[in-house]
Amino acid sequence: MRSRCSTSTPGDSNSRSSIARNSTIVRAFADTNIVIYAESDDGEKSRIARAIIESAPVISTQVVNEAIAALTSKFAFQRQEACDVANALMDLCDVIAVDQHTVREAIALALR
After folding, report:
1. Spatial contact of 109 and 98, defined as CB atoms under 8 Å apart
2. 4-28: per-residue pLDDT in tens?
């Protein structure tokens, strides 16, 4: 299985280079739901999720772990398939560890 997270075809309007040429990129954080939609066949939601992933968002180590768990337990992915998705995700995105500092920053942002 090739991960949808890691694929884009030349000339695809959703590819990273096309997005960068046509708009201003704002760093965003992608949660596990974005990864799951990117791997599903849910029409417009999946297309948008793949575009978000291909734009190289920030993800956390928690997102990677949750994606593997959800893909294998709820979406019948084989462990190797889910790990392939996780590896593609980590290659495309900035991965940050969730630590005390990160949680405190998230709390501060939530209270604004």
Report:
1. no
2. 443 333 334 444 444 445 556 567 8
Quick check: helix, strand or coil at residue 93?
A: coil
**Token pair for residue 27?**
């760093």
Domain span at 83: 4-110
**CA 31, CA 34: separation in Å to the nearest integer?**
6
Which tokens go with 44? Answer: 């417009």
- As a whole number of angstroms, the distance between CA 32 and CA 35 comes to 5
Is residue 40 within 8 A of residue 76, CB to CB? The reply is no
Determine the Cα–Cα distance for residues 14 and 90; give it in Å rounded to an integer.
19
Whole-prediction pTM: 0.69
Query: 102 is written with which tokens?
Result: 């990160």
In CATH, what number is assigned to the domain containing residue 10? Answer: 3.40.50
Cβ pair 25, 19 in contact under 8 A? yes
Number of domains in the chain: 1
